[in-house]
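Lab notebook, bench 4. We co-purified these components, and the gel suggests they stay together. Before we commit to crystallization screens, I want a quick structural picture of the whole thing.
Request: model the full complex, all chains together.
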Amino acid sequence: MQMISRRDFLKLGAASTAVLAIESQFGAIAHAAEQLVEGGRSVNRTSGLPRSFLPSTCTQCPAGCGIIGYVEESRLVKIGGNTKHISNQGALCARGQAGINALYDPNRILKPLKRAGSRGSGEWTEISWEEALTEVSGRIGGIANRNEFVMLTDDLGRDDLARRFTWALGSGNALEGTGVYNANKLVATQLTWGRAGDMPDVSSSKYILSFGANPMENHTEFVGFVRRLVDGMQDNQAKVVVFDVRLTNTSAKSNELYYTAPGTYGLLALSMAQVIMQEGLYDATFIDRWTNVSAADLTRHLAQYTPERAEAETGVSASVIRRIAAEFATTKPATTLTDSMASSYSNGVQAERAVMLLNIITGNVDTRGGYCLPREYTLAEPAPAPAYPGATVLSNPPANPLASQQVISRTMEAIQKREQNVGVLMSHRYNIAYSNPDLGTVQDVLKDETLVPFHVAVTPYETETAIYADIILPEATYLEDWDIEVRPSPEQVPFVSLRQPVVPALKESKTFFDITRELANRIGGSVAQYFAFKRVDDYLKGRIAGIGGLVGAGGIDYLKQHGVWYEPTSRPDYGSYASTGFATPSGRIEVYSSRMAQHGYDPLPSYEAIAGLGNLHENDMVLTIFDTAAQFDSRTGNCMWLNEIEHNNPVWMNPETAHALGIEEGDHIKLTRKDGEAKIRSLESTAYLTEGIHPKVVAMANGVGHTAYGAIAQGEKIPYDDPEIPVELRDPNTKLVWWEHHGFNPGHGVNAKQIVPALVDPVGGGQAWGEVVVTVAKI
Amino acid sequence: MSEGQHGAGEGQRGDEAMARAGVCRLLARVFSNKPSAELVEGLREARMLEVLASLGVDFDQGFISGDAAGEAESLGIEYTRLFVGPGEHIAPHESVFVRGQAESEPRLWGEATAAVAEFYREAGLEVDTAGEIPDHIGIELEAMAELAAAEAERHERGETAEAETLWGLQQRFAWEHLARWLPDFGRAVAEQAQSSFYRGMALLVGGLAELYEDE
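Here is the predicted assembly.
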């Protein structure tokens, strides 16, 4: 290219200024979305208002992505991803961006409310914080037996204040909702390699085998994990093979997809393991050094699980099983994905262990690109730490001695049977009357004042659970709150993330820290000492006290500025078990689980067919409830933007099956559960015919079908100038809700979980969502 | 430190920075949207044509004397074919032209993109990334224009040291980014363009990085 004269070039610059000045009057400006300002300032390009921004941590799903909140004149105007965050690396999903709707939900509760009518009537009267705290602390103080205080939260590992408050009161009934999510997986991994959970190192894998996992729509580390999965698929040309009951966003992008009969993932994995052992494709050194079984014994045990047997039950052909087993064993590094799906059955723990076995016998454990241990920091409990009050029948049901994640599916039933008396129920974060199975029983118990004499809901919203409260304490949303967050790192380098208010708590809402502190101070006695923090910083400092590198870098002050911290020079310490051993009784991977043997369960990875799924009647179908990328269970239910994307959930049916039943696309249909105990047995919806589903399976999306939680969650529009709505919460777009009557079924969908009975894997205590048999009929 | 920068007085150096901002804004405009009738009219004014001719850019007669709105419309079709698609087109992103060290081939949202975003951050440029990728040619050039405009402002206020820092940032970005891909980008556009307008603009954008070399 010819050299261009610098002087002439600059003349062009001077001349073009005039050209652009004229043009801009007509509004044809380059990059309408972009505004660049010198000096680290951000400015709204239409209003010219300066924007401030603060890093924080999302809670719209469990992934805990780093976010940046952009604020104009004290109002949050946008949420973006934090580029410094090691997990999500600046990317943020729809749920994260829609958090702004959760903050400014027009139906958000901003003052303490006291029940005015009967339980569940939705009639409330406003009271002052003084009255509310006096009543709640009085009720708690008046409990006869300390275990009669029951706390209900979503995840005790992440709601430390809920656990601390409960233990400070001397109650062992800090209960969590993990059982409806991934408890069986957590228990299976804990029993097998001594750590709850896993973190497949997908960005460096060459072969990825998925048993029902669908990370592209839902995963515990969602965006951070998917980024690395896509890296593995693109940069590393990893082959992805998926077994599922349904065509998902993940299986749509896989190299091969095989529809698999519900509840048979364990058998499928065991048959592959059988091939790998039989063909001598296993890693003899690893099995010998790091497991507690011998290759010969394992080969003998697996002999029963032939590909032919698996073909008969799973529907995947024996030749495919043989080929994929060989590919998996000979393509290194390889890993498996299950997320929570393979274990959402009553044989879930063993299914998870069977899939783990594939990684173990091929030596893909904790290697670069393999099946890795979860790497995360452990937070400290700020001193003085309340003592563990001991197990209760609710926290550790005797029937499920290994269920370390509790058995939330059965909690309400146990209260109904008076296995545990309740004095005060405090519900926080976990919306049990939406997220649990057997919702009829949940509602009955919450409604019954003899079973639950006093229920205080700490929440920003009138959820399906809060509607049965006696007092609602208006909690700040996550965008106005403080917390320290640690998650298993998809980068394999552990990190610490801070949640801090990007805007101050609106009106009279308070953070859970302030609420528990004020209650503890009122209750007094030995309880107050555990909440004697002057400021929230003192509590947060106590949480990170054990992480020397972070404290050295500036601790909380560093986190306030950057939002996240990790050792800057840290690299993944693959294979660190070599020096420490595995955290199991034997120090090895327990393919033979001594603890399972102790409690009379089959100690080796094995398969038991789920009763009732083997010989399905012609009209019988198996119901699957699936997650989508736009909602996360109950958490996102009131976010307008997300509801616009996903608001109803017609029933997926294979056309072949549907036509045999005389059902056409869009028909109004009824699903009736065949057996099992649950109050509500049927639901009505519409049919969505698609080849993207196993012929014997019907599927419905989770996250919609709310019966409370404000107008938006129930598909209703809200007039902008509704005098009932505080000015702070008004949003002109809430009048534009258009899906009130979209489709045949209610515009905002149906909660499919209401017809699912409380049915758990006895080992793991986690809900078996995927094995409800229903009949489908046109109405 | 270049003689050109230090030899000139504050006013002249401020003007030079303003002119640099002007060049970047013009090219940012040209490569991030379809031309408007106003842009066509502005570019074919006599003074502009003279400057462009000295830079080796000659527009054909259709562009110079045709109906401005009609010209803008047909150039809009070419713009879409060249940069938007459907079908094969030139993605105006640095990472599509520059392969990162850990990349087997260049790709959208690659290593270069991350480096560009990091530069904006270091330079104190807050980019609201809604909708566009940070290494789009339009954003890179707008960023350079912002820095140049800020430099001019500093000169005007007599804050020479700050102005010098801003000039240093522009040079660094030009060397580390613009010079690595704009020549290839310009060649690709010149090869595929059918109009004298895009061929001419390709020539200018291909040579832009030279503007940041020390004299």
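Residues 1-7 of chain B have pLDDT under 50 and may be disordered. Worth comparing against the SEC data before the next meeting. Chain B touches chain A through 65 residues (CB under 8 Å).
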